[in-house]
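Example record used in the benchmark description.
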Amino acid sequence: MARQWAGTTYGDGWLHRWLIHSLRFMPVGLLYLGAAIFVVPVCIVLNQSRRTSYRYFRDIHGYGRMKAAWSVYANHCRFAQAVIDKFAMYAGKRFDVEVIGMDKFNALAAGDEGFLHLSSHIGNYEIAGYTLVSEKKTIHAVVFGDEKVSVMENRDSMFVKTNIRMIRIQPDMSHLFEIDSALCNGDIVSFPTDRFMGQSKHIDIDFLGRPASFPQGPFSVATMRSLNVLAVNVMKVGLKKYKIFVTPLEYDKSASRKEQIRQLSQAYVAELEKRVKEYPTQWYNFFDFWN
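Model output (structure tokens):
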């Protein structure tokens, strides 16, 4: 069943401002430790995310009970680190980022045609916004429209330094006109491809051995114009290090529209599956994704 995403970043504006201020002089490792000892255990006890995370490791990855239970804790710690790192970027800190496939991005960015980035809620995709930058093309990131004001303001202040703009999902679907305009101008549009935000059409694909529903919208946008598409996954590989995987997604642009959507969606899910298997504790969809 298609599920609409209605999540926002934890905390209120005061907490976010305190976190940014603290990170201007406090090492991220210290906050990681505090989160691991005090915040994560409380969240695991109070939130239903522990159950969906446990089922993810137990049923999808086939872990034993003890390994699955430990992985739930590690999963929540990784998620806390991803949130801390996001605010660390707002505070002016920088991370060591290695890009695998930068030449693929540069080749498309140098051309005249627009193209798509497809991402998911694994790792820390926002880091890509400060790394994959094109002087020629503006990158338009499609984001949840009701995110906390403090988060959106910090994104705006960070992105103004780069060639990045945000397209907020709107209930009246007006964001579709912004997406169309961006692509007509030959720019880049970045889509989250694992959550339903404003659309209900979906495509069912086997993912990690079980059927799952993915939003059809990003694949429809790509095939409507026969656009080039990149899968972009940003994975945490060290205390202050990330690795960005940029992977072109191939599909037969001469095939029927329905077949193009099928091929492109399967190519994307195969790449996503590869990264999730490699970094299982960096999967941050805390709901019954395979329900």
